Model the fold of this input.
Amino acid sequence: MEIYRDPWLLAVHKPAGLLVHRSPIDKHETEFALQYARALNGGEHVYPVHRLDRPTSGVLLFARDPDTARTVGQAMMAGEVSKTYLAVVRGWAPESGTIDHPLKDEPEDRRLRGTEQPVREALTHYRRLATTEIPVEIERYPTSRYSLVELYPKTGRKHQLRRHMKHINHPIIGDANHGRGRHNRYFAERFGQGRLMLAATELVLTHPVTGEELALKAPPEQSFMDVLSIFPSPGAG
Done:
């Protein structure tokens, strides 16, 4: 779904489960966000300036020419682009905080995993929006607690948000690699799908040509909103 378009930029909403572009580890896949963006661009080439993991949904930005791609890419690398994500996590997270925890590179080539990799600085701010406690025993307690949080990554390490939330013992629901299997299975069974509960909801940058602030926003897709039914409605109680 198209979010924004001008002569230099094209932003779309990527659904969960869709790869941004072809990957050597997913050779069997035939559909990519890059293809849809090219179709929206009249079949002309577009240039991804950042990435979203396959299970993550939300705002995905493309440049419509190489010079714009280079300029926006440099702004991304310099930390000049603000990103906001929404996530459902296990437990009651603190009201707000900062996760300053370096992360080791995760190579895409599985043959390189387990080998020595660089460790890079990684920084994430977060804010809790809501909490809930449901009368379901999933681990050793008669009830289970969850939080809805906003996440603001200040660096762009691979799987940073998933790894950081695991680090503070509030893993994201639906995360097969860094989450808790019992909770993931409960949500998959209750809602009929096991998506990662992580959505990129806003991207704010200085427009590379006009110099004006550009805020690209997209509400989470329906599969995400369905899960939010476990939280009380605003003003309830």
